[in-house]
Amino acid sequence: MIGLLRDGIEPAVIAEALKVLGEVVPAAEITRYDLGAARWHATGELLPESVLGELRQHDAILLGAVGDPSVPSGILERGLLLRLRFELDHHVNLRPARLYPGVRSPLADPPEIDMVVVREGTEGPYAGNGGLLRKDTPHEIATEVSINTSFGVERVVRDAFARAAARPRRHLTLVHKTNVLTHAGSLWSRVVEEVSLQHPDVTVAYQHVDAATIHMVTDPGRYDVIVTDNLFGDILTDLAAAVTGGIGLAASGNMDVTRRNPSMFEPVHGSAPDIAGQGIADPTAAVLSVALLLDHLGEHESSRRIEASVAFDLATRDHQSPGATYAIGDRLAALVSSNVRTG
Amino acid sequence: MIGLLRDGIEPAVIAEALKVLGEVVPAAEITRYDLGAARWHATGELLPESVLGELRQHDAILLGAVGDPSVPSGILERGLLLRLRFELDHHVNLRPARLYPGVRSPLADPPEIDMVVVREGTEGPYAGNGGLLRKDTPHEIATEVSINTSFGVERVVRDAFARAAARPRRHLTLVHKTNVLTHAGSLWSRVVEEVSLQHPDVTVAYQHVDAATIHMVTDPGRYDVIVTDNLFGDILTDLAAAVTGGIGLAASGNMDVTRRNPSMFEPVHGSAPDIAGQGIADPTAAVLSVALLLDHLGEHESSRRIEASVAFDLATRDHQSPGATYAIGDRLAALVSSNVRTG
Ligand SMILES: CC(C)[C@H](C(=O)O)[C@@H](O)C(=O)O
Ligand SMILES: CC(C)[C@H](C(=O)O)[C@@H](O)C(=O)O
User: Fold this and answer.
1) E strands of A21-91, at which residues?
2) B contact residues 71-130, partner A, Cβ 8 Å cutoff
3) A9-35: average pLDDT
4) Dihedral over Cα of A78, A83, A89, A94: its sign
5) What is the domain range of residue A205?
6) Residue B246 touches chain A, beta carbons under 8 Å
7) Does residue A340 surpass a pLDDT of 90?
8) Cβ-count burial of A343 within 10 angstroms (0-12 exposed, 13-18 middle, 19+ buried)?
9) Which positions fall inside the Isopropylmalate dehydrogenase-like domain (chains A, B) (predicted)?
C-alpha cells in the first residue's frame, strides 16, 4: 500500500516510476491523492485532515513534485510538503548523491562521488518559529528561530552513524557553522562526539558549511556520510546533486526511521513547470525514489535491481537525447524486468 | 593611515600586500597591531578597548587572517573578526568573484564569471542571539535567532542596487529562502521591491539559496550583483570563490559605507596554518584586498592599477609553480610600478 501524492502538473515522471515499481511489486496497492496547486486553486485545500489520516495508514508515500508559479511562493511548500514532513515526523531526510558512470558532471575533473547526506528534517531553521514586529514601518524586525533539541539532533546523528558504519569507507562528516552559531553548534558537536564513542569504527570529521561548499566542488570524493541540520542540508544537497549531474537524477527519502509514520520519497527536483506536459521530463529521480522507498520497506533486492537498472541505463544512454519521459520509463522497466528474470 | 591587523601566523601575504601598496601610495602611514592567536595565548586579550579605539582613528584596516588550531574554534572568530565587523558597523560585506583569464576553474566549461556578492554584515543569524536551555540533559534545547531589521536590510539593499546600477549588466539577484524563512524572507523581498522602484534600470531576480548553489556551478555567468543575508552570503561567497579559482584569490571588504567607521579589507582565505612559515602562500588575495581598500578610499586609479597588474600576472603566470610568496609580491609590485609610470 503506497499513498501516491502529486500536484497534478507533473504526473508524467510518477507514471514511469509506477511502471518500474510494477515490475518488481506487481501487487502493490496504490492510492492516488491529488494534492497540490490544482486542488488548492479549486478548493483552497492544502492537506485536509482526512487525507492526512488516510496517508498515515499507508506503508509509504511517493511524492511527485510540489509547486506551481500560479501559487504564491511558500503556500504549497509549507502547507503541504513541510507540513507532511513535520506531521509524519520525517526526521531523517536522506539524500544520496552518486556520480553514476556515464553522467556528465559540471566539474572538470570529477573524482568518484558516492555520498549520502543525512539532513535533519523536523527542526532547525525550518521550525517555523519567528515573526515580524512593526511590519511595514522603518522599525520593522523579522526574526527566524532555529530550534535544535538534543532529542532531535541525537536521533538523526545516530541514524547517520549507523549508515556510515554500514558503508565501506565508514566516514562521517558533521557540517555546521559552530564558530558562529555557537549554541546550536555546541549541541551538534557534543552529540556527534557522544555518539561517536559507540562507533569507534567510524572516522569523524567536521567542516564549516562554507568550507563544505568549496570541497563539494574541489574535492567531493572526500565525503561518505554527511550529517547536518535542516537548512545546511537543504543547501548542500542541491549542490551535491548539481556536481553529480543535476537534480534531475537526485532522489530523496523523508523518513521516520522509527516506522511510526509512513516515510515519504520524492525526487529532489521541483515540478519544473517550464517543461510540464511536454513529455520530456526525466523520470530517473522518481524511479530512484522508488528504489529508496523499497529499500526502506525491506525490499532490498528489488531496490538494488532498480538502482542497477538506472546505473546501466545512465552508463549506456545517449545523454544528448535520452528519450521521452515514457521511453526512459520503458527502458528502465525492461531492464528491471530482465534483471528480475536473470538477476 | 591604515591600521594593519594580523594574527602573527601569516604576516607573509600582508608583507607583499604592503609592498604593492607602497608602489602606489609611498607615503601611506601604517600602524601594525598584533592581534590574534599569539596575543591571546600570551595575554588572554582578543581586542582590547584601547586598540579598538585606536583602530577607529584609522582610514582603513587591512586584516591578514585570523585563526589557529591552537585556539578553540570560535574564540578568535567571534572575539576578534566578528567583533570588529559589528563594532565598526561593517554592514556591507563586499565580495567580488571574477574568473580571471588564465585561472583554472574546477568547472569543466566555465563561462565568463564576474559577480559581486553584497553580503549583509551586521545582523541575520550572525547576531549572536540564541542560547542553550537544559544543557547536557536529554531535554536540551539550543536556539539561534536570525535578526533582520528594515534599517539593516534596507541599507545593504540600497548599496547593492547602487553597485548594480554602476555595472554594465545592471542585474541584481536577491538570494534568500523566502518559502521557508517566511518572516525574514518577507522583509527582504519587500525591501528589494521598494528599492527597485528607484532603480528602474536595474533588472531584479530572485533565487532560493539552494537553487543558487546549483546555478553557481552550472551557470555562474548569470550573476552580476547578488544581495543576501549574512549566513547565505558566507556560504555563497566561498562557493563563488571556489568556482573562480579558489579562495586563494578572493578579496573582501567589510564596509561601513557611511564612512563613520573605518572599513576593513581582508582576503577571504583563512590563516592556512598548514602552510604558514613556508613562504609559499599566495599573496594575491591580500593584494586584491588592498585594491578594494584603495577604491573605498577614493584612490580609484591606484586600485585599478593593482587589479590590472593582478589580472596580467594571473594571465601570464605558470600556475603550476607561481613562485614563492615574496616572488609573487615582487612581480606584482613591479607590474604596478611600471603601470604607474606608463599607465
Ligand atoms: C521546497 C522546499 C520547501 C524544500 C526544502 O527547502 O526543504 C526543497 O528545497 C527540498 O530541498 O526538498
Ligand atoms: C571566520 C568566520 C567567522 C567568517 C564568517 O563566517 O563570516 C568567514 O567564514 C568569512 O566568511 O569571513
Assistant:
1) 30-34, 60-63
2) 73-74, 77-78, 82, 104-109, 125-126, 128, 130
3) 90
4) negative
5) 105-244
6) yes
7) no
8) exposed
9) 1-332
pLDDT tens across B219-256, in order?
999 999 999 999 999 999 999 999 999 888 999 999 99
What is the SS3 assignment for B177-245?
Answer: CCCCCHHHHHHHHHHHHHHHHCCCCCEEEEEEHHHHHHHHHHCHHHCCEEEECHHHHHHHHHHHHHHCC
Q: Does B174 touch chain A (CB under 8 A)?
A: no
**Domain assignment of residue A87, yes or no:** yes
- At A73 the pLDDT is 87
Please report the pLDDT score of residue A67 as a whole number. 79
Which residue is catalytic, options B34, B59, B206, B238?
B238
Four-residue CA torsion sign, B109, A245, A336, A322: negative
Confirm whether B223 is a catalytic residue.
Answer: no
Residues A329, A287 share a domain: yes
Distance CA B20, CA B330 (A): 8
Q: Which of A215, A244, A273 is the last residue of a domain?
A: A244
Name the band, by pLDDT with cuts 50, 70 and 90, for residue B170: very high
Task: Tell me whether residue B96 is in a domain.
Answer: no
- Residue A43 CB contacts under 8 Å (≥ 6 apart), including other chains: none
Ligand of minimum distance to the alpha carbon of A231 = 1
pLDDT score of A6: 65
Chain A residues with beta carbon closer than 8 angstroms to that of B131: 183
Residues A110 and A72 in one domain: no
- A126 burial class (0-12, 13-18, 19+ CB within 10 angstroms)? buried
Which ligand 1 atom is at minimum distance from the Cα of A266? Answer: 12
Q: How remote is the CA of residue B235 from the centroid of ligand 2, in Å?
A: 9
- Could you report the per-residue pLDDT of B26-77, keeping only the tens digit for each? 999 999 888 888 889 999 999 999 999 999 999 999 998 887 889 998 899 9
Question: Which residues of chain A make contact with B138, given a CB cutoff of 8 A?
Answer: 150-151
Could you read off the pLDDT of A270-297 as tens digits, one per residue?
Answer: 777 778 788 889 999 999 999 999 999 9
Which residues, at least 6 apart from B220, have a Cβ–Cβ distance to it below 8 Å?
Answer: B107, B110, B111, B113, B115, B240, B243, B244
Asked whether residue A59 is assigned to any structural domain, the reply reads yes
Residues B300 and B275 in one domain: yes
Q: Are residues A71 and A120 in the same domain?
A: no
Among the partner residues B107, B142, B209, nearest to A107 by beta-carbon distance: B107
Q: Pairing between strand A114-120 and A225-228?
A: parallel
| Chain A contact present for B296, CB below 8 A | no
What is the pTM (predicted TM-score) of this model? 0.96
B21 and B65 housed in the same domain: yes
Q: How far apart are CA A287 and CA B144, in angstroms?
A: 38
Same domain for A261 and A321, yes or no, is yes
Task: Supply the CATH number for residue A117's domain.
Answer: 3.40.718.10
> Residue type for B338, please?
S
**Residue A98: inside a domain, yes or no?**
no
> Based on the domain organization, do B226 and B120 belong to the same domain?
yes
Number of domains in chain B: 2
Q: pLDDT per residue over A16-27, tens digit each?
A: 999 999 999 999
| Residue B90 in this model has a pLDDT that exceeds 70 | yes
Atom of ligand 2 nearest to the CA of B234: 11
CA A181 – ligand 2 centroid, Å: 11
Q: Which of B189, B212, B244 is the last residue of a domain?
A: B244
pLDDT at B7 over 80: no
